[in-house]
Model the fold of this input.
Amino acid sequence: MVQAIRGMRDVLPDEGRRWRAVESELESVLSSYAYEEVHLPLLEFTELFSRGVGEATDIVEKEMYTFADRDGDSITLRPEGTAGCVRVLQQHGLLYNQTQRVFYRGHMFRYERPQKGRYRQFYQLGAEAFGMAGPDVDAELLALARACWQKLAIDGNVRLELNTIGSAADRGRYREALVAYLSGYVNDLDEDSRRRLTTNPLRILDSKVERTREILAEAPVLTDHVGRDGRAHFDALLEMLDALGMAYVLNPRLVRGLDYYNYTVFEWVTDDLGAQGTICAGGRYDALVEQLGGRPTPGAGFALGLERVLLLFEQQNLPTAAAVDVYLCVLSDDLYTEALSLADRLRLELPELRIRVHAGGGKLKNQLRKADQCGARWAVLVGGEERARGLLALKALATGEQTAVSIEEAVARISNTA
Done:
């Protein structure tokens, strides 16, 4: 039998219901902050990511799914959403001299080592804000993320880690200091860090290798090289977060793995998911629009990994919706069309509920058993003596109580317990 490709994850119905519930809650928060949805293509020209994300990043160097199409163009399955979001808004004239607050969602693809909470096909939801250079929008994005965690009742399981990485010039000065320091430990660094020493030395700060982390303990600190403007921006942000009562941890080693960031960077992390502790990350990227061919436009945003958020949500053991709310049992085969019509009317009256008509025949006892198995609270019996009187039989499955009611009364009773 053909199996799924390694790292490409199947989502089955039970998890799918939880997935939809979580995504719906997140969407409601984004809507309450007046962020509007954009839809991004799965495929983009490879140049978008090599220019936007950075040639020397792990994503571009070894994680992208890239191929030549029939015209010989280099095409890539999107590994992240920000570069594509910039391309969409820029191409359609929605950036220059404007402000935009948008969100997107969908699958991303990276060739990584699969493990719990990390897949090669994964689902992200991102929020991006353009045209605002001040720390106020940074604070708004962090407040938006916090509101998401509160909505899902996982705010007690995550913490915010913050840093400022300054401007490109600030990081250039820091890069020189870091390389000078680490060059004295070349033989002690792990293989990846030795390679990054000449390509992207700031990424060494993310190393999980114990010996490298020991060396980094005495390394120069990036925040010591941040200039006046970057420091002022960060200090103003911290004042806003304090005023909002938002807890945070300053992490001077936090740099993020994408070249387009500047000034503020942040991660929301948890200790409840093992190695995959980052559930949301982002920051400012004020040069990205210009880097991709547009006019200078400041930007900031974040992306959260829905699989990891879902894992945290499931740990709360909160009740999730059943597969079915109302189950129509059909007492004879010749009533099936009537049952379909009745179900459609109930769906019009109760659009928020899931209504299923039994198919395949069988005894009433077996149909009621299936209704129980799919979590239905109500069964409607189509047929029997009630039908002759223009009524239907409504059965509360939790108590077993069955009454003959009109369709209007059935709708009222079901609605009152929805």
